[in-house]
Amino acid sequence: MRLGVVGGEDGAEVASAAPSAWRSPLFVSSLYVVGSRLLELIVLLARRDRAKELEILVLRQELSILRRQVGRARFEPHDRLLLAALSGVLPRRSWSAFSVRPETLLRWHRGMVARRWTDSHRRPGRPPIGREVRELVLRLARENPRWGYLRIVAELRKLGITVSAGSVRNILAQAGLPPAPRRDSESWRRFLRAQGEPILACDFFTVDTVWLQRLYVLVFLSIGSRRIEYFACTSSPNTAWMLQQARNLLMELDDRDRRVRFLIHDRDAKFPRAFDALLASEEIKVIRTPVQAPNANAHMERWVGTVRRECLDRLLILGRRQLEHVLRVYVRHYNRQRPQRALDLRPPEASDQAAVQAKSAPHDLHVSRRDLLGGLIHEYDTAAAA
Questions:
Q1: How far is it, in rounded angstroms, from Cα 28 to Cα 174?
Q2: Is the CB of residue 179 less than 8 Å from the CB of residue 169?
Q3: Which of 7-16, 262-271, 315-324, 351-360 bottoms out in mean pLDDT, i.e. has the lowest?
Q4: In the beta sheet, which residues pair with residue 263?
Q5: Bridge-partner residues for 162, per DSSP?
Q6: Element (H or E) spanning 205, and its range?
Q7: From CA 220, how far away is CA 229, in angstroms rounded?
Q8: What pLDDT, on the 0 to 100 scale, is given for residue 288?
C-alpha cells in the first residue's frame, strides 16, 4: 500500500476551522485521501500475513526506485496531514519507511502550533478609525453641507475626538460625499495676527424685514481673539445713538478688563466725529480705512458674510426685537462654539477640554446635538453614557 505524506499543521487547522471552511478544497481533498486509505487498510487486513509481507517488500522496492529518480519530493497539504497522523500510530522503529526524516515531522508540528497560537501581524500604518467615529464624520458632513474638512476636524476636536483632515477627506470620499468649497484667506492676515490683540474692528450691515423696513446692525469684533465684543440694532443710527453705543462698548470692555488701543472702521457717514472723539478720550485711536477699500477691514467683512450665509439669509425677520434675539443666539454660538482657523480651530471662548484619540472604544463615544434657531445651527457635545 502506498502511503501519502501529509503535514500536521494544515490538518490541525482544518480540524479546528469554522464550519464554513469544511467545504474548502483542502478539506475535501484530505477527506478523500483518508477515505481511500481506510478502504485500502480494510482490504489489507483481509489478506494473509505472507501476502501482506510480500506486498510490503514490493512497495519498498518501488519506493527506493522512485527515490533514486526524483531529487526532492513535493508534499501537498493532505499528504503532510496523513503522514503526521500515521507517524503517531506506528512505532519509532518503523519510521524508516517514511520518505521524510523525524526532524521534518517535528518541524511541521512546531509550525502548526506556532500558526495556531501566534497572533497575525498588525498591518503597517496608523490604526484604523472606529466605525462610530466614521459615522459621526459622515453625520456632521451631511447635516452641515457648508463645512469643509478642517471645520469637521474642529467640531470633532471640541467633542474630544482627534482625527486629521486627511482622514476626514478619505472618509467622505469613500462615502461619495464631495468636499465643501474652499474660501480664500483674508488679506492682512500676518500683520493683524501679530498685532491684533489690542485692535477692534467695527462695521455696519443692514437687514431688511418682511415689511421692507431696513434695520442697521453695528458690530464690534476683536481682531486677536475673533470674539464679538458688542453689537446693537437700530432703524435710525443717528449721532446720539452712536454715542450711546460707544459708551456701552467701553463699559463692556471695562467689565472684562480688556485694553484696546485701536479701532478700525470705514469712512461711512454713520460714524460721526463725536463718536471718534469719545473713543479718543479713552486712549483708543480710531483708524479710518481708505475709500472703497473693504479689504482694509477684512475681518469685519468676512464676519458679515459669515453671519449672512449661516444665519440671516435663511430667516425672515419681522422686526428689531426678533433680529436682536437671532443675533444674540448666533453671537453666543460664534463666541463659544464655532471654531476659528486663526485660533487653531478653537472657538474664541474655548474651554479647556482634554482631547481623546480616535481609537477610543466605540462604546465610550456618546454625542448629543443641540439645535439653535429652530435647527438652523447645530452644536455637538459629548454626553454621559446611559
A1: 39
A2: yes
A3: 7-16
A4: 200, 286
A5: 357
A6: strand 199-208
A7: 6
A8: 92
Contact indicator for 59, 40 with CB cutoff of 8 Å: no
Q: How do residues 232-247 score in pLDDT, each as one tens digit?
A: 999 999 999 999 999 9
Co-location of 336 and 222 in the same domain? yes
Residue 229 placed within a domain: yes
Task: Give mean pLDDT, residues 198-216.
Answer: 92
What is the tens place of the pLDDT at every residue in 336-353?
888 888 777 888 887 544
pLDDT for res 362: 47
Q: Rounded mean pLDDT of 53-77?
A: 65
Q: Tell me, yes or no, whether 169 and 226 share the same domain.
A: no
pTM, rounded to two decimals: 0.53
Separation of alpha carbons 331 and 132, rounded Å? 31
177-184: long-range contacts at Cβ-Cβ below 8 A with a sequence spacing of 24 or more? Answer: 177/138, 177/141, 177/142, 179/148, 179/149, 180/145, 180/146, 180/147, 180/148, 180/149, 180/151, 181/148, 182/148
Asked if residue 211 belongs to a domain, the reply is yes
* Cβ neighbours of residue 301 closer than 8 Å, sequence gap 6 or more: 203, 294, 295
Any residues with CB less than 8 A from the CB of 15 and at least 6 apart, and which? none
Whole-angstrom Cα distance, residue 300 to residue 228? 10
β-sheet bridge partners, residue 356: 161
Residue 23: pLDDT over 60: no
- Length of the chain in terms of residues written: 386
Domain that holds residue 232: 190-343
Sequence-separated contacts (24+) of 67-75 with Cβ below 8 Å: 67/99, 73/5, 73/99, 75/5, 75/6, 75/7, 75/100
How far CA 176 is from CA of 95, 129, 132, 248, 272, in Å, comes to 63, 18, 18, 50, 54
